[in-house]
Amino acid sequence: MKARSIKLDADPYYATDLGAAYLGDAANLLAQLGSASVNLIVTSPPFALHFKKEYGNVDKEEYVDWFLKFAVEFFRVLKDDGSLVIDIGGSYEAGRPTRSLYQFDLLIALCRRLHFHLAQEFFWYNPAKLPSPAEWVTVRRIRVKDAVNFVWWLSKTPTPKADNRKVLRAYSPDMKRLIRRGYRPKKRPSGHNITPKFDKGHGGSIPANLLVCGNNDSNGGYLKACKAAGIKPHPARFPPPLPRFFIRFLTSAGDLVLDPFAGSNPTGAVCEQEGRRWLAFELREQYLAGSRFKFPQFGGAFGESEDGGTDGVDELPLFRR
After folding, report:
1. Residues 76 and 198 reside in one and the same domain
2. Which of 91, 189, 200, 233 makes a 20 to 30 Å CA pair with 147?
3. What does the alpha-carbon distance between residue 197 and residue 71 come to, in Å, rounded to a whole number?
4. How confident is the model at residue 313 (pLDDT cuts 50, 70, 90)?
């Protein structure tokens, strides 16, 4: 079934054979989707930051209630083995060098009030992140830079669809040497019993829940195309390797992936490359207009990343096909 056959009341802003992007409020568009119709929701919603951003963000005190109106629909549209993946950054309390707990409040509300399950917590480390907030990090020097986002992997049931063999890392030189030479089974000082199975190759090592990828594009194809068209690019873009990891890990070819806060729509672009059907919802037209440049059907370079080259997934130590 092509994504074009998923009928919503509104016409798509643009569409491909695999997916469609819609302009409008995600709450209204979600209500038009059938129950148990989506395999994966992967998104980076507006964060509850102290300073307001042009793409819109809600105050920390209101954030949980704001997000839950969407999350009720997330739960309904997900299949029983489906997953919800949320990239959510932290923030400081106003005027104080102490951190807000809003991400944890949201996580607890999703699990306790809506009965999502926490499948696993992930951490996205962005080595290119600038030191902030300046008051505490670069002026008073009493904090270090905040370079990690939480990524909550939630599921509708305790047994979501997942296969870590799809996201194996390349073996380190030491592990390759160990497999080649063999390993004497023994109990380690930690108490772990290393069996003879340990020295057998399995195509790669199992990745950790620390995801490392930069987000420092300054001259990529998307930005160049937006500039040429006179379109303002999205100021807080989701790096493609992040949705790619979860799309590979949690779905199969032909599955349906939804991003309800699509922004520049990296999730849809990655789905095109990975053979997944996709839906993207975005409230602001300028961001959807620019997102077309990530698709070859609309003049973009297929597989081009935010830094202007190939998307680099296979070059990053975390990701492999």
Report:
1. no
2. 233
3. 42
4. very low
Residue 35 predicted with pLDDT over 90: yes
- Shared-domain flag, residues 27 and 163: yes
CA distance 34 to 42: 18
Residues 225 and 162 in one domain: yes
Between CA 124 and CA 128, with CA 125 as vertex, the angle to 5 degrees is 130
Active-site choice (12, 46, 87, 240): 87
Which of 12, 44, 160, 233 is labelled catalytic? 44
Show the DSSP H helices in 78-131 as ranges: 102-112
- pLDDT-derived band at 301 (thresholds 50, 70, 90) equals low
Domain limits for position 200: 169-205
Please confirm, yes or no, whether 87 is among the known catalytic residues.
Answer: yes
What is the rounded (10 degree) CA torsion for 43, 45, 48, 52? 140
- Looking at 154, 182, 205, which one is the last position of a domain? 205
Task: Return the pLDDT at 251.
Answer: 98
199 in catalytic set: no
Distance set, CA 305 to CA 68, 179, 235, 239, 270 (Å):
32, 34, 16, 8, 10
> What's the residue count for the chain?
321
In the chain, the number of structural domains is 2
Give pLDDT tens digits for 165-178: 999 988 777 767 76
Q: Is 45 designated active site?
A: yes
- Closest Cα to residue 78, out of 106, 38, 34? 38
Catalytic residue among 12, 45, 160, 239: 45
Judgement on whether residues 281 and 183 belong to the same structural domain of the protein: no
Q: Are residues 49 and 125 in the same domain?
A: yes
In a domain, 309, yes or no: no
- Same domain assignment for residues 201 and 239: no
What pLDDT, in 10s, does the model give residues 222-265? 888 888 888 888 777 778 999 999 999 999 999 999 999 999 99
